[in-house]
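step 3/5: co-fold with sodium ion
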Amino acid sequence: MFYEMGESPSLIGRIERLFIAVVLGLMTVITFANVIARYVFNSNVLWAVEATVYLFAWLVLIGAAHCVAITAHLGVDAAVNLLGKRAKSIAALLAVAACLAYTILLLIGSWNYWYPFVTDLSFLTTEDVPMMPGFGWLAFMNGGEPYEKLPRFIPYFVLPLSMVLLTIRWTISAIEILKGKRTSIIASHEVVEELEDRDAHVEGTANTAKETTNG
Amino acid sequence: MVIALLVLGAPVGVSIGLSSIVFLLIYSNGSLTSVANTLFDAFHGHYTLLAIPFFILAAAFMSTGGVAQRIIRFAVACVGHLPGGLAIAGVFACMLFAALSGSSPATVVAVGSIVIAGMTQVGYPKEFGAGVVCNAGTLGILLPPSIVMVVYAATVDVSVGRMFLAGVIPGLIAGGMLMVAIYAYARWKKLARGEWAGWREIGKSGADAFWGLMLVVVVLGGIWGGVFTPTEAAAMAAVYAFVVANFIYRDMGPLKAPSAHGKPAMIKERAEHSDTLAMSGGAAVLGGPNLGGGTAAPVADDPDRPISLLRRPQALFTAWFHKDTQEVLYDAGKITITLMFIIANALILKHVLTEEQLPQHITQAMLAWGLGPLMFLVVVNLILLIGGQFMEPSGLIVIVAPLVFPIAMQLGIDPIHLGIIMVVNMEIGMITPPVGLNLFVTSGVANMSMLAVVKAALPWLGVLVIFLIMVTYIPILSTWLPTMMMGPETVIR
Amino acid sequence: ACNVSSNDNAESSGTAGGDEVAANDGCDPGEQVIKFSHVTNTDKHPKGIAASLLQERINTEMDGRMCMEVYPNSMLYDDDKVLEAMLLGDVQMAAPSLSKFENYTTKLRIFNFPFLFDNIDAVDRFQASSAGQSLLNSMEDKGLQGLSFWHSGMKQLSADRPLIEPTDARGLKFRVENSDVLVAVFDQLGANPQKMSFSEVYGALQTGVVDGQENSWSNIYGQKFFEVQDGITNTDHGVLDYMVVTSTRWWEGLDENDRNDLARVLAEVSTERNQAVNQLEEEARQAVADAGTEIRELTPEQRQAWVDALRPVWKRFTPDVGADTVKAAQAANQG
Ligand code: NA
Ligand code: NA
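step 4/5: write tokens
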């Protein structure tokens, strides 16, 4: 959470960053537009509330996988930091194992949850979000009848998708720990070293906000 | 099990989530499918939680966009000349920034990064500055807007607007108590004081901070003026902060001063500010190159001045996609993700507990003990204080609130009052080890070890504990303002 | 007292939660467990009362065979999620508002036709008719089995100014439930329908984010909407009703004996509680009046003006429900 360090600007990393920025931007703009529509034009964007909520789910669930990659998830490292290097790696491996167990259990649940929506329950649509242009061909999912509103299996797809991504990310973490490339899967609280570290290769952006704004 | 996983260094969200799932599989006939359903419902079924990303985004725009520096300059001008003036100004600045941001660590970062360095340079012990800001920063969740209040309101279904109002008076009192304590300490220790810079400087710095401070008016005025709901207000705040940062202060985005491009703007300015702060004894102009003259006519091609919108009108369009905007969106998104990942998993735990009917059993047990309201509140405080040692506030609220809320209602405790008690407990949790977000952040901005920050924050923690007792047993502190503004509670008892 | 249900029109959810501390008795092994999830309190709202009564009767009369657990206050699922959870087998019974079934059938839109039923007795007669009973089976192909109708009451209209003529609503913002018919109703009036999270409605009415709403008396009283409105107009313009549903698969998998007994108990509970609704509504209406809120009655001519203004909505949605059904519903007005 606090400082990102040595993040590799890989293509996937850049796509994920852009995804996060765009989704949060969209959420803000849609909500803003709804207020303007209601207050200034005495009109409405009936799908605004529902669409924003779905974007929120996509932001957090997909973003959770990205946060594994940049070691941004919050945790408690006070105890682990008392350990020696080797013990620390073992603890980290156990922690990753727990994460994998969590993700795989949820992957099963997510798949069981999502699967009916592409099969038996494919007729279920969202309440307000209109069908996106370009998806007309999905009508075959609805017994040939075109969807008026976005079918639910599209927003819900984020569940299995994010769990697959998380599984991949945790596996990569496990490999990195085994190779000795990293010792922890949570954001470190020993910020001091990292501050120095960051000063060594500062990025050119205005940056205080980077630190943290949550709580 | 949660604690075992936490100790191993697993993420908080996973620790809670995995424990819930295992509990569910062992003790109940609930399915993995229902867990997935609940995970998605954390977003789909909790519209009001949307305020969280928006408030985080607003705070990010304000920190990056120079609002914080202007507020500090104003605070120093107002109270910098008192004994311990810079520290009092730090508290004052924290209160002002708290009124703009929904989060405590954000407040510490925005104010602390400038003030602590400045205090060290005028000769205060560094621990003093760090301890004061670490404590005062907790006001970020007590003064509205507040992310923790949003979470509480969403969890037990009370009005967010009411909660916001309820935080105002306790927030002012807590800030006041901290200031008085600092004043007394400074007289006792004979700490340096700044020079009185005159009303002119107050006026000037106030005018410069005006657009930032107007955010309070926009948010609260918009809510009570019927323009938008509290959730929407958060999105409006984000858009407003974006506009102020890009088009008025121009500390970021396409109109930023050319000299600031390609440099780590904040770090550079931070150093300069602390220099000026030190030289002038704290009260003088806190002006880096971009400050003070923000609205003056730009001199042609002065690389230190922001660019006029007239000279670059396309900025109206490009600002939305500018690299700085993207960066801020990404940073705010990242914080949202880590926080919501915990909250979503806490909601899974809540679902599992509900399925096992645990809240009802606990309620019955507690009532069977014959706890009165006074003792009950002591128990609540203890649970929260202990929980706050290990958990991040929002996640803790999601788990504890459904357990204690029904009992509180049975005992006739006001739900808004209960909410404020919880928030104050969370404040204390944030500055106590091992998990204390403010501690982590302070150690970062003050460049001190965690242990040193803990020691530094400890004396001032006492003030907050006294304050907690006051808030717990004087309900009217919390309930008076919302009742005044919004009429009596709509809760059906 | 937990979830913020996002589109729930009328339930006194949430804050009322404090009153429910009665834990479900543990079910014995061998008993068929029925999880009933709803979104109101257990002892004040018509639906909550009915669910509690059903629970009590099943757990005594069918002891050893069936065991009902009630999860009130959206503790487990809100009305948007509960039907999904039912189809996925995680909950067995629920009673969502009829507007929640839009995805499963358009036939139930009949209940949102404006000014279709004169009063709740007409609704009763229609639901008892063969046309009404067949609606219970209208979602079989989607896996849902309707078992019974439960009433909340007739809907009344309110805003931050008096509503007498249909034109009075023009330009006002109304918070509406998720239903194409209801959106069309307010569009037809020249008003501005708004979607809004239910937990935000009271605050939005108070500050003026929205101007008005429509609801049954017990909800207007229970949610205290009357405090922040300029009087209530007694329009009886629509009906707020619930359908007790279960999943077809679960229902058909039951032992025949159990299923028949369960259906009988449910039918008796429904009749008893639906008859009591008139009185609950009257009490709520009286309580609103006692609080000093003005209740405006419409003359027959004034009411007819509303009916005429909204007739185009019937026309638009008749193909969805079938002309026969509309006829049967109108016929129910002649007792
Ligand atoms: Na705040
Ligand atoms: Na703590």
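step 5/5: annotate
The radius of gyration of chain B is 23 Å.
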